[in-house]
Amino acid sequence: MPSPFDGKWSLAHCDAAAAFYEAIKSPDEYKEKLKKLAEAVKKDPSSYVEELKVEGATFHRAVYINGEKKKDSGEAPLNTEVDAKIADGRPAKIKLVKEADNKIVRTEVGDGFNIKTVFEVAGDEMTVSMTNGSVTSVEKYKRV
Fold first, then answer.
1. DSSP letters of 110-133?
2. Position 112 in a domain
3. pTM (two decimals)
4. How far is CA 49 from CA 7, 35, 46, 113, 116, in A?
5. By residue range, what is the domain housing residue 18?
6. Does residue 6 sit in helix, strand or coil?
7. How confident is the model over 43-62, as pLDDT tens digits?
8. How many domains does the chain have?
9. Is 89 contained in some domain?
10. Within-domain flag for 2
11. What's the CATH code of the domain at 63?
């Protein structure tokens, strides 16, 4: 039976991203890249799409920007801590836990950040909440 996460998701809305990336002390060049991406998404939500698939104990993720698959696409084991890099390229200990069929929690711990990200699917909508300390950014996605 397919997972509720399986499929392509278009970013529809994002709140407090700038404050979140400031809180985790992302490099300025990464924050500038995200600003440009946010402007593109406002004009065309299909400019940022994530393709997800949960297969057994593996979470697959592919990111498309303006239709082009990006290098941060990949897969990660569920319920296993791994050494990897967060989106802005810094090293971290990362763990994904499937808490329910429709809910996955990712933790990312590294120098200057301790991020908890909750992915939750309800029908054709997915909410992604990223929290570091007292700062939370919420992204809303629609199934494509």
1. ETTEEEEEEEEEETTEEEEEEEET
2. yes
3. 0.91
4. 10, 16, 6, 26, 21
5. 7-143
6. coil
7. 887 889 999 999 999 999 99
8. 1
9. yes
10. no
11. 2.40.128.20
